[in-house]
Design the sequence.
């Protein structure tokens, strides 16, 4: 049908950097048909694989634990958590910042790499955007359940009410409400808009009536007409341009929740860039955590190639170095400022009762990712999977160090108290992973995991050499 | 549809669907169709074909302007909402921070700009792209299902004013079509059946019912307390004053004290101190020995409780400020307060004066509830001093001071 690529190479190694030859984005001779087949096979193969059921069962069980623990929390009150005075913000906010940070990699891949015309993004952007949305869903739950009286959460919305009161727009917590909700809505629109042509592909391939109706409704009657593509591409570009500043702004606003407060260890100007780098770092770690098993299990190794993972690991290495700089700069400024409270907080992080969290964080976020300087570590799936897992742990600990360790020993020594999580804290954290993986597993099985039309768009074709029409 | 009938030579024909081998071929065909002057046709492809817009002569979309307008609207909305709500409608004073502060408004101005612009880009892409769309004539072709996988198609609509099946077929084939298929109009080609619209309208009306019911319930006056889904701490398992309880025969949750119970500090058994009487007669002496401190105490209590009517010297009449004001306003029922220096008052025993302060007399109200008994005795002592000062003789003046007296 379509001319096969003459540029594709037979070897599975596309990680070389020969300047004379552009490295192929896909492995093997791929055509529009083979790309469609390999992506749709995941959704269409008869007989759902047992392992998928097993994984879904486990994650749905954890999701049940998640919502069960939340119901227990709401019906019994905040006292079932380990939060105390002075550690008013503990696991819920640590988890919130952790999950919202995970999302940033998806937006970076889908928006910033699109604007920079990084065509390798096309194989992983759909799954990464899905990851963003599911992570933001997990994140949005935590400030809600942390409220105490969750049924008054709607007070955060600026609506005219009988109390004649408005939200305090000068509070960073209110900026956060707007930033996170905007982020969720924009990400969801970007994700769905990008998926419409692929949903139409699934509609047109569907044999069963139910699939035809379901994908037909989701595809909105897309016919791939040139007029539709024209508006569509413009809208996609505009959404990418609008989502790009969100990559930087969302976690910057989250960081002002801390930086605007007067607490030593929080009140620093380095927080916005430091948080953004950490968010991208943790998000790319989660991309590796998800994509390494998914590409192997669903047979997508020729589309999500080792070169993709190599690139992702390079970004992790770069952001890890930025974090190392940030950690060092925090310590330097604490010393250089001459502020005894700042100095104490940082000494307390490194040598206080929670010192093990600090050093584990440094090991996971700074030391271990340095292995990515070795090409062997960047291109071996099991190695990068382990390192990425460690980074996930390290980034969660970073938020623990910032929030809990700073709060537990603030200005007034009479107020100092240790924080210990309760079993409910632990179950909610564990359960949030269940919700995240449940959503991701459902996504893998029922929605196109790779952006087919975008991959086809960047497939090497003979005709591109014909010059201008 | 009916308006297009005159243009349609072969009724029932929806149009011609031509398949092309590649993106390149379909782009060339688009150029020749455009040059031949056809207008109602479109190219369908699994991915955007490079520079197809110029081949087809499509105009640039106005979507970016829509997105820009929406983004500016977001900035203006946030720029107006924040100072108005926190600075004007309900000034929110926090730590002396300025009510109108631009820097704190910037994050939400940015977020609303992005949000509204993104909504415009998303909605605009759907609306300008003609989505959602119930059907398309080309969907009736089985071949066309490959348009979303690897097929490149041109659909020539019969709605084109110059549509001619034979000429169209010839043109498409000369443009390099692999296959040309005439498509008939069928149920899926046009608008959705009216049942779909009715179903959507019914669903929309039904969806409106719950909020309308809630609003109606909340707005109407009710004899019973509102339904409280969440009790907060407004309703607690305890008895409130005047509450009822089935535990007791009289049905009262509050228990009356045992008969004969006297609360602490309310015994008042000392008749002299609390009633001003000794053996049933007005006491002529004070229950406690008078002191200078008691006199000072009496002076201050007199100034607070008595002087407003009787005047600072006790002359009564209009010397008190309340009395003066009542006379000035010509209060019809005002009775001028008595002078404390009249013989009838001066001759009263101290016990009787104490009784008058405690229980009032004629239009004078009772002060027993406001002034403790010891303070009432202090006031009596001060009144005695006032009476003596206004009715003094030369014998009352100390010898040393007498030379200073003027006749």
Sequence:
């Amino acid at each position: 049908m379509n001319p096969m690529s003459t540029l594709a190479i037979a070897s599975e190694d596309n990680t070389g950097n020969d300047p004379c030859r552009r490295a192929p984005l896909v492995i093997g001779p791929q055509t529009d048909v083979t790309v469609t087949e390999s992506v749709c096979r995941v959704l269409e193969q008869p007989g759902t694989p047992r392992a998928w059921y097993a994984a879904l069962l486990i994650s749905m069980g954890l999701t049940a634990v998640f919502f069960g623990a939340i119901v227990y929390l709401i019906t019994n009150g905040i006292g079932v958590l380990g939060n105390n005075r002075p550690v008013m913000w503990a696991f819920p906010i640590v988890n919130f910042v952790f999950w919202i940070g995970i999302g940033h990699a998806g937006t970076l891949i889908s928006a910033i790499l699109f604007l920079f015309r990084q065509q390798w993004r096309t194989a992983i952007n759909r799954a990464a955007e899905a990851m963003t949305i599911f992570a933001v869903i997990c994140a949005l739950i935590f400030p809600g359940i942390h409220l105490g009286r969750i049924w008054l959460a709607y007070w955060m919305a600026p609506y005219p009410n009988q109390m004649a009161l408005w939200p305090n727009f000068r509070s960073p917590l209110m900026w956060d409400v707007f930033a996170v909700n905007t982020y969720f809505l924009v990400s969801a629109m970007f994700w769905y808009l990008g998926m419409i042509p692929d949903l139409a592909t699934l509609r047109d391939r569907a044999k069963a009536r139910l699939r035809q109706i379901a994908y037909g409704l989701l595809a909105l009657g897309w016919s791939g007409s040139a007029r539709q593509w024209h508006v569509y591409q413009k809208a996609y570009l505009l959404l990418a341009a609008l989502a790009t500043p969100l990559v930087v702004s969302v976690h910057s606003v989250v960081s002002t929740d801390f930086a605007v407060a007067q607490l030593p260890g929080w009140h620093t100007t380095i927080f916005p860039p430091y948080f953004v780098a950490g968010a991208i770092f943790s998000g790319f770690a989660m991309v590796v955590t998800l994509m390494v098993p998914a590409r192997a299990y669903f047979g997508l190794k020729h589309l999500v190639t080792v070169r993709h993972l190599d690139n992702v690991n390079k970004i992790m290495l770069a952001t890890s170095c930025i974090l190392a700089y940030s950690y060092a700069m925090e310590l330097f400024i604490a010393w250089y400022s001459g502020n005894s409270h700042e100095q104490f907080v940082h000494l307390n992080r490194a040598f206080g009762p929670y010192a093990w969290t600090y050093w584990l964080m440094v090991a996971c976020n700074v030391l271990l990712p340095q292995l990515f300087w070795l090409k062997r570590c960047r291109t071996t799936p099991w190695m990068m999977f382990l390192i990425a897992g460690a980074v996930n742990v390290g980034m969660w600990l970073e938020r623990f160090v910032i929030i809990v360790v700073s709060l537990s020993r603030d200005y007034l020594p009479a107020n100092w108290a240790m924080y210990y999580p309760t079993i409910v804290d632990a179950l909610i954290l564990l359960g949030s992973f269940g919700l995240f993986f449940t959503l991701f597993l459902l996504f893998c099985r029922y929605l196109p995991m790779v952006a087919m039309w975008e991959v086809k768009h960047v497939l090497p074709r003979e005709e591109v050499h014909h010059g201008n029409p | 549809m009916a308006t297009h009938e005159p243009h349609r030579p072969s009724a029932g024909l929806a149009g011609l669907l031509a398949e092309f081998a590649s993106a390149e071929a379909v782009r060339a065909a688009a150029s020749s169709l455009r040059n031949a002057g056809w207008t109602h046709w479109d190219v369908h492809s699994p991915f955007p074909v490079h520079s197809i817009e110029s081949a087809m002569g499509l105009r640039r979309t106005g979507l970016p302007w829509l997105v820009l307008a929406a983004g500016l609207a977001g900035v203006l909305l946030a720029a107006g909402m924040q100072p108005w709500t926190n600075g004007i409608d309900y000034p929110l004073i926090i730590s002396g921070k300025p009510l109108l502060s631009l820097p704190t408004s910037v994050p939400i101005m940015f977020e609303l700009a992005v949000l509204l612009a993104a909504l415009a880009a998303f909605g605009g892409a759907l609306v300008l792209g003609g989505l959602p769309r119930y059907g398309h004539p080309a969907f009736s072709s089985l071949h066309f299902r490959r348009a979303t996988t690897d097929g490149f198609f041109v659909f020539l609509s019969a709605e084109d004013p110059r549509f001619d099946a034979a000429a169209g077929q010839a043109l498409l084939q000369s443009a390099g079509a692999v296959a040309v298929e005439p498509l008939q109009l069928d149920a899926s080609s046009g608008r959705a059946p009216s049942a779909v619209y009715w179903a959507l309208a019914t669903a929309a009306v039904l969806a409106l019912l719950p909020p309308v019911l809630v609003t109606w319930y909340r707005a109407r006056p009710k004899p019973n307390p509102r339904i409280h889904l969440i009790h907060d701490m407004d309703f607690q398992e305890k008895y409130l004053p005047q509450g009822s309880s089935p535990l007791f025969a009289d049905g009262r949750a509050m228990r009356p004290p045992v008969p004969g119970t006297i609360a602490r500090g309310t015994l008042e058994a000392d008749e002299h101190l609390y009633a001003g009487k000794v053996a049933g007669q007005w006491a002529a002496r004070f229950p406690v020995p008078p002191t200078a401190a008691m006199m000072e105490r009496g002076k201050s209590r007199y100034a607070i409780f008595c002087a407003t009517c009787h005047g600072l010297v006790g002359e009564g009449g209009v010397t008190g400020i309340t009395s003066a004001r009542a006379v000035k306003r010509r209060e019809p029922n005002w009775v001028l307060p008595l002078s404390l220096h009249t013989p009838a008052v001066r001759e009263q025993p101290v016990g009787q004066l104490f009784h008058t302060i405690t229980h009032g007399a004629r239009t004078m109200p009772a002060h027993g509830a406001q002034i403790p008994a010891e303070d009432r005795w202090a006031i009596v002592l001060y009144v005695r001093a006032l009476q003596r000062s206004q009715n003094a003789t030369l014998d009352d003046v100390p010898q040393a001071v007498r030379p200073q007296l003027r006749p």
In short: The mean pLDDT of chain B is 88. Strands of chain B lie at 13-20, 41-44, 152-157, 179-184, 277-278, 281-282. The longest helix of chain B spans residues 63-89. Residues 46 and 150 of chain B are 6 Å apart (CA to CA).
